[in-house]
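Crash report, auto-generated. Payload:
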Amino acid sequence: MAEKLDLHLNKSCKRGRRALPQQPHPAASPPPSPQGGGEAAAPVLRLSGITKRFGPLVANNGISFDLKRGEVIALLGENGAGKTTLMNILFGHYVADEGTVEVFGKQLPAGDPRAALDAGVGMVHQHFTLAENMTVLENIALGTQSAWKLRLDRAAARKRISKLAGDFGLAVNPDATVSTLSVGERQRVEILKALYRDARILILDEPTAVLTPAEADALFRTLKLLVAQGLSIIFISHKLHEVMAVSDRVLVLRSGKLAGEQVTAETSRAELASLMVGQEVASPKVAEPKIGAVALELKSVSAAGQGSSHRLDGLSLELRAGEITGLAGVSGNGQATLAALIAGVLKPASGEVVVQGASMRDWSPRAALGGGVARIPEDRHAVGTIGDMSVTENVIAERYATARFSRRGFLDWKAAKNFAEEIIRDYDVKCPSPDARIRLLSGGNMQKLILGRALDPDPAVILANQPTRGLDVGAVAFVHRRLLEARERGAAILLISEDLEEVLALSDRILVMSKGRLSSPSRRGERTIRELGELMAGHGEGMAA
Amino acid sequence: MEQAIEILFTASFWVAAIRIASPLIFATMGELICERAGVLNLGIEGIMTVGAFAGWFTVYSGGDLWTGVLIAALAGAMFGLLHATLTVPLGLSQHVVGIGITLLATSLTYFTYRLALPQVTTPPKIEPFQPLPIPGLSKIPILGEALFSQTPLTYLAFATVAIVAWVLYRTPIGLAVRAAGENPSAVEAQGISVTGIRMGAVMVGSALMAVGGAFLTMSAFNSFFFEMINGRGWICIALVVFGSWRPGKALLGAILFAAFDAYQVRLQQISGGVVPYQVFLMMPYALSILALILVARRATYPKALMIPYQKGER
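Recovered output after restart:
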């Protein structure tokens, strides 16, 4: 049945199908022996000397590696190490300045996604490439049938999709409009897109970044099924535990270069981490806090929920100078509302917010900043930065109207540029120049700029909302160190994070937020992860009334 | 008052409404194709002028009527190619390029007209398309008369709507066009050239706009004069929004607007000069704005509309 269907599709698709047979190399016969063995097996993919520059930035520098049949390679590296760039070259989105890509022994023409697809390369991008106004089926079938056909063959496409979905545990309704799908479902559609075109090499770019743990487990199960069918997989990630769990071999990229290659079974998380950042990663040393006066106080504040976040009902909270208060909780329980309130974005319905002894009257972000509240926003792309504006413009975005950056209504570009250069230097931001558009920066470098902007000059209160979400090991350590330094200088810090380990590592005092309410506080080390988890789930003792 | 309502039940009113709608239907479908691929084509007003002249001049110079339509479409496609070259591979502002195309196309048309007919004061006439009543159907009172006693070009307009709807929703190429307007990277990730799709869509769309213009000189009237497009292009841009970027709804919008227009002319005649005639002239536009507010608030526009796509850019 399936074969019949294949034939049918072959006929209906004049130029779409690749010429390669299903079993491309007789030498590459099962069983696949990924662990260093398989000398006889020709590589399904070979990258030789790939170099790519973006202006003065060298994103990839002479990278070469082979991928074997049925092998899972993890491409590990910090944000901005060049992982995504490399895969985009392989897939033909970018044209490499130097080097070649060979698939099944044939060189791919540069910059031609169609050729990559036809050669059996499928890519699941980190930012999904789906048209949201179209159905799952339409997205998958796009480009697989001859453009001049008078009618899209939906029946054949539907059959093939449901077969693939069944075979690989990728359940999704082919007639659903993509805009109605969850992130996990969208990812399944992306994988189906590749399988539908008979991909033999599947590239997954940070596939778990957007998934819940359960969804990630389902993805790993699917990957196992795919490997069993002889597919080869390149798995891009910066999460060490995932890399250890799924891969046969790990390639570590650092600043655009191949920094190391390890067989997964013979390496450790610590070794990979040090390869990734180029040095040993030490967990931050936390000194005893020097707790000072109350810097920010919320007095029985009530506020309407912000977006999908829970509303607040008579919430009280004190932040003291020189102390990190960690706020744990499952997202949506009111953290975003609380953050909006402290940042001056949201006006409370009742209650009082006192910053450094002065009650807040004027509810605007500018007033909050003026009162000494610095913020690291939850979403650095949507709220923290303006992607198409320059680094310089972004670092003064919060304070362009102050005397420091403007004079008589005119911007002082010199002061602005100095400030940008200062942050770039002090925070080790990798960017081509202060004039570069900020969206060209990797997430970690963007966050460093935001951090530099927020911490200058010493703010009294720091609202750090998910400060390390999506960052790699090196950047996380950097952010943590800077926050601890700010605490030493006497800042009152509210750390909102879904990462419980982060909350435990940094906080002097921990609160759990659930359904818009706060638990009673606990000092460092008083509650175990388990106890905190129960509080996060909304039961357990210690939820304040 | 009674008279004002009686107008709605006369066949001549509906015949006029469908006639007035025809050029709008062509041009609206043209604009809709461009926008569905992600390109706002503000050259529409100028491209309609080009089409009006090219079609008419072909017939005036001895060509037959259908050759005129074809030449108009080709002329439109050429201006579409210019628009697309500037906005798609070069990624220039679609607003600026569109206005520029309108100014260029309009002036070039007037210039060509003067070059070709330097001495003429009254625009020369041609023998335009004649009504072609469909036997049987055109005898149905009011509705049949309105729809089935029109010129072949009006029938073509309605057929165009069906074809555009079919192509957009039922064919592989339509899929690519819609995806290009929603998320171009989805198109590229499936191995299709976004540039190719967008340029093609703008050229085909512009050809339809030009045929819309040609309808005026070859079916509604029988000669070319200056300023004859008279803002119809801009109306079509509003009609695309009114139709939420869907061919069927846009067709309804075009007929609705045309009906307002036909109605105001008749209302002027019975008002007996008490109300200044400009009030009636304004009516279809005021009603269109009202309709737009009511209908288009929830419209889901193509997400990548007006966003240039450049391959290999981060």
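Post-recovery validation: Confidence is low (pLDDT under 50) at residues 1-40 of chain A.
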